[in-house]
Please model this.
Amino acid sequence: MTTIKSGFFTTPVSTPSGQRKKIAVDNPYLTKDEYITSVEASGLGLTTSSPIYTSGELDKILLRASAWINRYCNRYFDTQTIDETKTQFMVRPYNPQLVTVVLNNRPYQQVHSVYIQVLKWFIQVDVTSPGCYMQDFPDYGYFKIVPLLSSAGTGAGSPIPAAILDHVPLGVLWTNYTFGYGTNLIAEPLTQIGVTKSYQAPLGNRLWAPDQPKTIYDNATAVADANIESYDYPNGIVTFKSSYTVVGPITATFTTNESLPFDIKEACILLASHIYGQATQNALGVQSYGIQTYNVTFGDGSQSGVYKRVEQLLEAYKNNMPAFF
Model:
């Protein structure tokens, strides 16, 4: 049976690298073990023995809450490496000027590459060498470049005459970059779960960034991917294949998203609690129940103040920036 992935599509390969386009995806902003210690979870009577915890359903609720935050803020906060495209890009080859490119996500950690696309042609803009025409403003989420192109379409410049792009918005700007509030951890000790082949990071470092580099070590020796059965990124768990013999100790180098701002985590807790409360007490989403003389009226979230509080927490994180200026 094929697993259904919500919002999933196979991205095209017509990229500067020739690989499939990397797009931002939803990842949870809180582990279930961190959520279960909150006062909201305690008020709902949730513990590590609750069916919603042991079944994995709590992981899904936390992901849904995190996705809501992403849509409201129009950006992502965990660490990811993506390809971002912007249209309506113009070049002034005869009078080069600084162009400010605003990325959808901030802070960014590194801009890896920038290309200008015209039709199927990709023209690389140097953003890595010490003498490149680029200025970085990672905390604000934008960078400045001077996209210099040749005027004749020969040599090291554009494969087409650059005059075609002069004051005409034919260009598409491709930026490959890594963003987010994640933190890189080196040789973090992992603890065995019971007598299984699964090992888990300590509480506070269990929220792993799925697409970032990671290495598992057994007795300080890197473990080959062929010996790893699976990763549970939202809970910081690695499981070895049954045929693999662990020597120990087990450590890992990875990127954790536990360093997200407190406001983002608090918003995730409030939304997850509201989702769970609605599901258990008002699954149909009705405004009221009535049985003869007995009536129960439900709020819609705004009346309870949940959404208002969440919006207050997230107001400073909303992305309202233009694409270029």
